[in-house]
Amino acid sequence: MASQAHSRPAESLAQKLFATRRLTLELAEPLSDADATVQPFPEASPAKWHLAHTTWFFETFVLRDHVPGYRAFDDRYAFLFNSYYNAEGERHARPKRGMLSRPSLDEIRSWRASVDEALEKALPNLPPAALELVELGINHEQQHQELFLTDILATFAENPLEPAYAQADAPACFATEPLSFHPGRTGIVEIGASEDAPSTKLGTSFAFDNERPRHRVFLAPHSIGSRRVTNGEWADFIADGAYRNPALWLSEGWDWVQSEAIAAPLYWNDDGTEFTLAGRREIDHAAPVAHVSYFEADAFARWAGARLPTEAEWEDFASSADANLGNQLDSAGAVMPRPGGGMFGDVWEWTGSAYLGFPGFKTAEGAVGEYNGKFMCGQFVLKGASCATPRGHSRATYRNFFPPAARWQFTGLRLARDD
Asked: Which of 385, 389, 163 is nearest to 276 (CA)?
């Protein structure tokens, strides 16, 4: 999880740090202690845990390691809120995070306030290595803000009362944009984050270690869809019996469909509605389809006579797009995919590329090096950003990744084809 970036004033870093920390608290504001404690399934985490884990990250890697004399708020919290950093010792089992009725949500808020106060005092005197970890922690917390929303959506979906996390405006009426295909570049191109600064420098060109090194790849002739696949097109896929046609599916995907009785995107009902952060709503057929797995995305592409783009094709195609545009997270609320988006926002897009290290990839030293590299097995790359991604967090080189059956995230697809 090493980062590389250009120097910038510590004041700017502090502003970004505390704006990020505030947004996390604002996301939690609508929740009761009970809401924040529930864990809907083992791969998701309680909202309360997200607030605590991101605080543990700063307390451990910045305050404990770089502020002389700092004492932990509660020595027991390290065991409870470490995620998977083996170098940090034993930890509470992930599938049992929902059993942590204590500490309470208010106690975790108090811990956050204490850590934030300590960070504010320490920032002016932190060495460059610690400031780099602060920047790393900001980006880490932004990732958890997205997980916070997708996990609370999964939590409320398990409740027969189907409570709304927040209210949202009714969708505007949009006609579905016609799908066209645009030729991508052919030949040798470069992908990945640049190596233009040593890893001990701060700046605006932050990147995770899995985005490096920048390297050359060869692209065969291909075209990429002008927009994402929509809910309306997915309804046609269902109506054509695609979930019952084994010829469309990878073997493992077909086994998954059969064993899990999959027949539609997650949160869809047979009555033409879907469950959202704003409660149950009519499916917007012009909006990008969301909450589909890699298996489903791959089957849809085959049904449509196309394929998923590779990571390199997608990244090169999006390299000139503004990653700050599109439907992304700006403030706490009931986010959802909307029609008419560009390359970034609304839904993460599955690619056909396995999540592996780039040629010459090296993990960062120490515990933070466990963040990305050890998950490079059995997962696929997603590109872009979603409606729950904090604006400014993503970029063309960003590499999101999930197992092929995962679909509780805002995940969709864009088609590609060979020319």
From this structure: 163
Rounded CA-CA distance 129/119 in Å is: 15
Whether the CB-CB separation of 293 and 405 falls below 8 Å is answered with: yes
Q: Cα-Cα-Cα-Cα dihedral of 79, 83, 89, 93, to 10°?
A: 70
Integer angstrom CA distances of residue 356 from 194, 360, 409 = 18, 11, 21
Cβ atoms of 385 and 409 within 8 Å: the answer is: no
Task: Indicate the pTM of the whole model.
Answer: 0.94
CA distance 375 to 97: 21
Rounded to 10 deg, the angle between the 128-157 and 10-28 helix axes is 20
State the residue for tokens 């493992």.
252
Tens-digit pLDDT profile for residues 135-146? 999 999 999 999
Over residues 63-95, the pLDDT tens digits come to 999 999 999 999 999 999 999 898 899 999 999
Q: Is the peptide bond before 103 cis (omega within 30 degrees of 0)?
A: yes
